[in-house]
Amino acid sequence: MHIIESGNVAAATGVKLARAQVIAAYPITPQTPLTEKLSEFVESGELKAEYIPVESEHSAMAVCIAASSAGTRAFTATSANGLLYMAEQLHWAVGARLPIVMCVANRGIGAPWTVWNDQQDSMSQRDVGWIQIYANDHQQIIDSVIKAFRLAQTVSIPVMVCYDGYILSHTYMPFDQPDQTKVDAFLPPFTSKHFLDPENPGNFNTVTLPDVRPDLEGTLAPGYMEIRHNLHEDLRASIETFVEIDRDFEREFGRGGCPLIEKYQCDDADYIAVCIGSLSYHLRDVIDTMRQRDVKVGVMGVQMYRPFPDKAVAEALVGKKCAIVFEKALSYGNQGTLYADIKSALYTHETKPYVHNYILGLGGREIKTQQLLDALTESCTSPEMIEDTPRWIGLKL
Amino acid sequence: MENQTTILNLTEEEFVHPGNRACSGCGLSLVYRMGLKALGKNTILVVPPSCLTVLQGLYPVASTKLPCVNVTFASTGAAASGVRAAMRVLNKKDVNVVAWAGDGGTGDIGIQALSGACERREDIIYICYDNEAYMNTGVQRSGTTPEGVLTTTTPIKGKLQEKKDVPSIIAAHRIGYVATASAAYPLDFYDKVKKATTISGPKYIHVHTPCPPGWSFESRFTIKIGKLAVQTGLFDLYEIENGEFKLTGASKNLVGKPRMPVEEYFKTQGRFKTLDKTIIDKVQAQIDAKWAGY
To answer: Is B36 inside any structural domain?
Structure first.
């Protein structure tokens, strides 16, 4: 069934279809309409779940951690400072290997206060070990939420589904609402091997020593380092798992096919614009204009950012003249985070494209199509011009 | 308190293994053992960083025979809410969801999550064991450290501020059951925990737990010092049930009788050694004024 709704409602609808069992959230702009919708679903009985209106984001993730440890499907959502307020809890959730799903309506971070969109919030949490998936439109939001629950419980790693605040969260777009019976077939109920159970008591997340240690039968149990190593390996393996899950989704719903990166006009392109989130669809207009001027340019949106699909990225970029990375976040004092990752993915390849880095749209600064066109034209005209600091678009100094 | 449990009818079932990592003479280890007896098998524990984390053992060995989830320092009240939510979803109605935290984890870093859980009327039991400083990290001052106490972060002058009254803060949430207890009166604590399991909504029990290394006394004096805190009228055993305050046990028996001077309590512990007469007189006056109202 096609409906016209906001990105936040698309996310909430995905959560409902996924039959989340425990939801905890604290309001923050621009995530708020998502949690409002979920409380409406729960209060009206449309979604049979517990909704805990917690007193902070830290507690929102605490509820999810505990509810997931007790064997239920847990969800929360946040933005910006709310995400950072739960930073400690993000590490805890993934260290405990809990399949929590969280939506992040991307927003810039204070100080100074901004409520508008950029991606510094989730980008700054890229190293905690959560899987990060970015949606480019409302259809991808609802589909990603459903896929995220299946991915999370398959690999026992929490998943963040990120989408641009306001640009997607508050705009209305038509999208297909998947059929509940099909979602139920695609996403089996969550059953945990280890959960808080008085019949089979276990002590979860206890103090772990630097070295391995025998249990009472003398069998060596992993130490902290083994546990962390396994997380890393499982994260790397989850790239392939997500591809398989996306394939299943495509079979069931007729959509998907680009779980890691989404390419537009890339096959014959000499130049590839690279970005994350809704900007990649904005860039398609620019690409179309440039194609009319016979510039062979395409755009690649990175859908799965953590774990980083470096092989897919390298495959898409090796042999091209230049990759132009547009970013709404940066590693302050260094360079764009995606830019660094793209270069790293290309390092072992002999025929590397030039890689350019543009920073734009911070704190909701308007991104004009003409600015993108000018930047891309400049990079395509002089790909060999590499500067040691990112170029800023729309900066008014 | 009716139907007082005695040593004769106390259950012999144990939920804490011997040989755990508590210090010798630990007040917490006493009340933990008693509390779990009162809670019984159908219980899920939620524990933030505290001495209890250590007491429970190092992976992969655990000293508690009940399911327990260790959570981050500030999140105990919320995590217990999450476990309860999951129990409702899974239709497991008869499980006690019990948060068990130290005084710093409760009155300082954990107070927001606890306040939220109380306001939301979460069906949880929250037990705060009060050893009056951050003992697990090596005796640093907390909001619940009494005035004048030497800690490693108040090493010369002693703490300059008074102890935060956490049970009163929780009682201000007007929850159904708030109680205080002491490791020196373990059966009184047992009965209060037992009562908490029969009440729905949030229940808060604040238990005074003398700490030999942190308070600087010989481990054989844990009970004696715990009793002195009560008998001098400094730490009172009470219940607030549906808003109604009443003294219980040893404190109730003190009403109308002469109390020992609080100085006798202060003399038993090295942490009070720099206490001057001004503070002693002030605390004594506060105790006298409080008891004049009982």
So the answer is: yes
Residues of chain A positioned with their CB less than 8 A from the CB of B89: 21-22, 49-50, 67, 72
Contact with chain A for residue B171, Cβ under 8 A: no
DSSP state of B107: I
Quick one: CA torsion of A118, A26, A137, A295, rounded to 10 degrees? 10
DSSP run (H or E) holding A252: helix A224-253
Decide if pLDDT at A84 tops 60.
Answer: yes
Out of B42, B59, B88, name the one closest to residue A221 (CB): B59
Q: Where in the sequence is the domain holding B49, given as residue range(s)?
A: 27-292
Residue found by looking up tokens 């870093």 in the block: B109
For an interface test with B, give the residue of A203, A204, A228 to mutate (most B CBs within 10 A): A203
Q: Does residue B5 lie within any of the structural domains?
A: no
Fold held by A261-392: Rossmann fold (3.40.50)
Domains identified in chain B, total number: 1
CA distance A141 to chain B (A): 26
What are the per-10-residue average pLDDT scores of chain B (294 residues)? 79 92 95 98 98 93 96 98 98 97 98 98 98 96 98 97 98 98 97 98 98 98 98 98 97 96 98 96 98 96
Under an 8 A CB cutoff, do B89 and A50 touch?
A: yes
Whole-angstrom distance, CA of residue B285 vs CA of residue B280: 9
Is the Cβ pair B58, A71 closer than 8 Å?
no
Superfamily of segment(s) A2-186: Thiamin diphosphate (ThDP)-binding fold, Pyr/PP domains (3.40.50.970)
Task: Note the ipTM here.
Answer: 0.97
pLDDT tens-digit series, residues A127-153: 999 999 999 999 999 999 999 999 999
